TrEMBL record:
It comes from Nonomuraea glycinis. PANTHER family: HYDROXYMETHYLGLUTARYL-COA LYASE. Coiled coil: none annotated. Keywords: Lyase, Metal-binding. Transmembrane segments: none annotated. This is Hydroxymethylglutaryl-CoA lyase. Residues 6-270 form the Pyruvate carboxyltransferase domain.
Length: 295
């Protein structure tokens, strides 16, 4: 059966804005996050404490956090790859982080400057340190379906990386289709290979137009947390072929039609996307935003 409720893990401010060519002013980012909370989001991935030279778009992480109007009941997780990042996050009162691993050797090198194996040397003390500080940890695995350099990613390789991350004490594992090459049958097979969908989330980029179909397959397989980005912005600076995430509006449109509750206000999301698109200087790639903003 399909779930009655789905948690949308909003990644627009992080995954969306990490990939913008021009640096977005910190006050625009802060307003974006506040508007997302106003639209009903309960989880807003806000920024990353990564190396500012690696991702200059998010070099203002500290300042952004200090400008947020945090609301009770809303979580504001941030990405943290290593102990230096954890130190920075803890100094700014972060209460949830996410580590982000690669399912492939090549992307581990390109995104983290580590190997498939040594990425865990980096994450282990981060997860342990965060849990000790009372901070929840989510984990991502990137390139779960395919990788631009290695082709299809073998399912057992994804499961091995994912289970190691869960074994460290991460509360949830988000399966990333970084370059959007996955298709619904592959999604079902991957989720089934984990044995249980209970701690899984899905993170689809819409490069090949498969994100909604893939999401539906994941829901049928028992997943109840879906990552999405308001306006459908996003991508990864270390995987050139990556384009925008599944748009939150497209997801909410489909879920509403299925009678699945998200607690999100679609009109407010569309208004926010339209507002952001003006600041970014280009229209939202989301079809639902385009259709509804013609109004
Ligand atoms: P490295 O060069 O190996 O770093 O990069 P290092 O550990 O050797 O440290 C070198 C120097 O950097 C040191 O300074 C550190 O202090 C400093 P020095 O001693 O030389 O003066 N440093 C830092 N400074 C500030 N904050 C930090 C930090 N870390 C080290 N956190 C590193 C390793 C992991 C840092 C680098 O590879 C990195 O920052 N990578 C991040 C890449 C990234 O953010 N990619 C996008 C996010 S992943 C994604 O989008 C996929 C996802 O959406 C899911 C999907 O779609 O699949 C999640
Ligand atoms: Mg992503």
């Amino acid at each position: 059966d399909l779930p009655q409720q789905v948690t949308v893990h909003e990644v627009g401010p992080r995954d969306g804005l990490q990939n913008e060519a021009a640096i977005v002013p910190v006050e625009v980012k802060a307003e974006f996050v506040d508007r997302l909370a106003d639209a009903g989001h309960k989880v807003i991935e806000t920024t990353s404490f990564v190396h500012p030279r690696w991702v200059p778009q998010l070099a203002d992480a500290e300042e952004l956090l200090s400008r947020l109007h945090r609301r009770p009941g809303v979580r504001y997780p941030v990405l943290v790859p290593n102990l230096r990042g954890l130190e920075r996050a803890l100094a700014h009162g972060v209460d949830e982080i996410a580590v982000f691993a690669s399912a492939t050797e090549t992307f581990a090198a390109k995104n983290l400057n580590r190997s498939l194996e040594t990425q865990f040397d980096m994450f282990e003390p981060v997860v342990a340190g965060a849990l000790e500080a009372g901070v929840r940890v989510r984990a991502y695995v990137s390139m779960c379906f395919g990788d631009p350099w290695e082709g299809d990613t073998p399912i057992p390789q994804v499961v091995a990386v994912g289970e190691r991350l869960l074994g460290l004490g991460c509360y949830q594992l988000s399966l990333g289709d970084t370059i959007g090459v996955g298709t619904p049958g592959h999604v079902t097979a991957l989720i089934d290979a984990f044995g249980s969908p209970d701690r899984l989330a899905v993170h689809f980029h819409d490069t090949y137009g498969q994100a909604l179909g893939n999401t539906l397959a994941a829901l049928w397989a028992g997943v109840t947390t879906v990552d999405a980005s308001t306006g459908g912005i996003g991508g990864c600076p270390y995987a050139e072929s990556a384009t925008g995430n599944l748009a939150t509006e497209d997801l909410v449109w489909m879920l509403r039609g299925l009678g699945i509750d998200t607690g999100l206000d679609l009109d407010k999301l569309v208004t926010t996307s339209t507002w952001l698109a003006e600041r970014l200087g280009r229209p939202s790639p989301s079809r639902v935003v385009q259709a509804l903003s013609k109004g």
